[in-house]
Amino acid sequence: MAIDAKAKAFKAQGIAVINLSVGEPNFQTPENIKDAAIKAIKDGHTFYTAPEGIIELREAIAKKLAHDNHITYDPSQVIVGVGAKELTYLAFQVLCDKGDEVIIPIPSWNTFTEQVKLAEGKPVHIQLKPPFKLTAKDIQKVITPKTKIILLNSPSNPTGAMINVEELKKIADLAIKKNIFVISDEIYEKLTYSQKHVSIASLNDKIKELTITVNGASKSYAMTGWRVGYAAGSHEVINKMKALQSQLLAHTSSISQVATVEALTGDQKSIEKMKEAFAKRREFCIKELSSIKEISFEEPEGAFYLFISIVKLLNKKYPTSSIWAEALLEKEKVAIVPGEAFFYPGYIRLSYAASDQDLKEAMKKIKRFIES
């Protein structure tokens, strides 16, 4: 967000910036979803809703989870919130007592760690090495009597790595054996390239009872600004999340909720179009960056990021990836995110959720900066 703000400050001064820092699709929200929102306004859907969201949306989410993820939930086990971010916040708040430990594989979205701290929990980081694929053995090593939650994010931000199905089964078995909750952030589930996404809660009833599955409309439907996320889990946990949400902010926008019903139940062709575009951009960036000997990266299995090692480029002039990223923005007007933001210095995250033209120009500028 800080890098994005700086990039926008340049743009406000009339300086052209290629922004590859933000994690949002560059596509417009599909027309059928926009039309549903306009109709909702005209039809008078402008009043308060239930804190957990309108029943039509919760029913649509339950059907989506059953059809796509093979998890059966009653709509009463679903809560709608202000983006997936708010749902993970609510889950940590209702599950964590002071000092409870939450296992978080890194590199990871830093919000997870900060939300655990806000809940007075203790983040326990597992430092993954390339190819950044979490295993049950990694988790086993850091489990203590205070372990309360395992955080999963597959496909991952920032690496695009996915947890293999067999490994997911082992993680589920471990969580069941140790009676540890799982928060599974599946916001990038529709954007996969090399393997199909599998929800851990679909594996069996025992792990389903321990899992809070978090998702939303932002990435799959290009609805980042609409702020609609959702979570599903046991009645006990979801009811506590509903109670907390009712005291925090009531509910997300009534208009956004109606629009998301259309997103989930209407024409799904937009997802495939975006996925095809991201796949082509992914291949282009991989090809262009592979020619730079000083950097290295793993091919992402999902999401729309490349997590790139720039360790060989760091020196007295640019001693950290944060300073390197700032210099790239200052000199070439290309915005990317340094690895420090993901607790993984020496790397940068580049988003290829940008236009083809911007990506072509950005590759030229990055190469020129490295060669300078």
Protein described:
- This protein is globular.
- With 372 residues, the protein is α/β, with parallel strands linked by helices.
- The strands form 3 sheets. The protein has a 7-stranded mixed β-sheet with strand order 2-8-7-6-5-3-4, with helices on both faces. A 4-stranded antiparallel β-sheet has the order 9-10-13-12, covered by helices on one side. A two-stranded parallel sheet has the order 1-11.
- Strand 9 (296-297) and strand 10 (305-309) form a beta hairpin.
- Helix 3 (55-69) packs parallel to helix 10 (254-265).
- The mean pLDDT is 96.
- The protein has helices spanning 2-12, 31-42, 55-69, 83-95, 110-118, 136-142, 165-178, 205-210, 235-248, 254-265, 269-290, 321-332, 356-371, and strands at residues 18-19, 78-81, 101-106, 122-127, 147-153, 181-185, 211-216, 229-232, 296-297, 305-309, 334-335, 337-338, 347-351.
- Helix content is 44%, strand content 15%.
- It contains 13 helices and 13 strands.
Order of helices and strands: HEHHEHEHEHEHEHEEHHHEEHEEEH
* Spans of at least 5 consecutive residues with low confidence: none
Number of strands: 13
What is the helix tally? Answer: 13
> Largest sheet, if any?
7 strands, mixed
Distance between the termini: 27 Å
What is the 3D shape?
A: globular
Radius of gyration: 21 Å
- What is the helix content? 40-55%
The proportion of strand residues reads: 15-25%
Average pLDDT rating: 96
Strand order of the largest sheet: 2-8-7-6-5-3-4
The computed structural class is alpha/beta
